[in-house]
Amino acid sequence: MKRFRFPLRPLAMLREHREVRARELFALAVRAYVQSEAALAAVRARVTRFEAALFAGREGRFQAAEAAQAFAAYRRECDVEVTAERTTHAARAEMDQRRAAYLAAHRELEIVKRLEDKARNAHRLAANREEQAELDDFAGRCRVLRPLTTA
């Protein structure tokens, strides 16, 4: 029986490397998305605390200069929140894109693996047939050499 050799093995290796690289890029994108989500949550918490402080400041005496400064600082925090939201949305889009690329690379690798499995099974079946043919031939030769004796 000759040894199994898969002619598309170089392609399979190339696709394995592509899949690993796509998986790494996807992991990096997930990490960036999680970090941007954490940053957004922190900014939202700051904005919430700022709003609470602004509403608490309205209970006392109104001072226009302090109120204007506090409102300007609040607007800056809101702008930071909008920027963080945009960053999070961009990170989410990047993560989705990397996921799609990883899934495509994984599918391409699976196709080659299935082809290799089919070729391996066909090789095994052919080897089994060849071995069975040799055994049948050997049994036939042994029968010719030893005639059946009747008692």
Q: Could you please describe the fold and organization of this structure?
A:
With 151 residues, the chain is mainly α. It has a domain at 9-106. Helix content is 87%, strand content 0%. The protein is built from two helices and no strands. It has helices at 9-57, 64-145. α1 (9-57) runs antiparallel to α2 (64-145). The radius of gyration is 35 Å and the shape is rod-shaped. It starts with 8 loop residues before the first helix and ends in a 6-residue tail after the last helix. The relative contact order is 0.14. The model has no long low-confidence stretch (mean pLDDT 90).
Give a quick rundown of the structure.
The chain has a domain at 9-106.
Tags for this entry?
2 helices, rod-shaped, 151 residues, 87% helix, mainly alpha
SSE topology sketch:
Blueprint: H1 9-57, H2 64-145
Helix pairs in contact: 1-2
Give unreliable regions as ranges: none
The helix count comes to 2
Into which percentage range does the β-strand content fall?
under 5%
**First CA to last CA: what distance?**
41 Å
Helical percentage: over 70%
Structural class: mainly alpha
The radius of gyration computed from the alpha-carbon positions, rounded to a whole number of angstroms, is 35 Å
Question: What is the chain-wise order of helices and strands?
Answer: HH
Give the tally of β-strands.
0
The main sheet comes to: none
Q: Average pLDDT value? A: 90
Specify the overall morphology.
rod-shaped
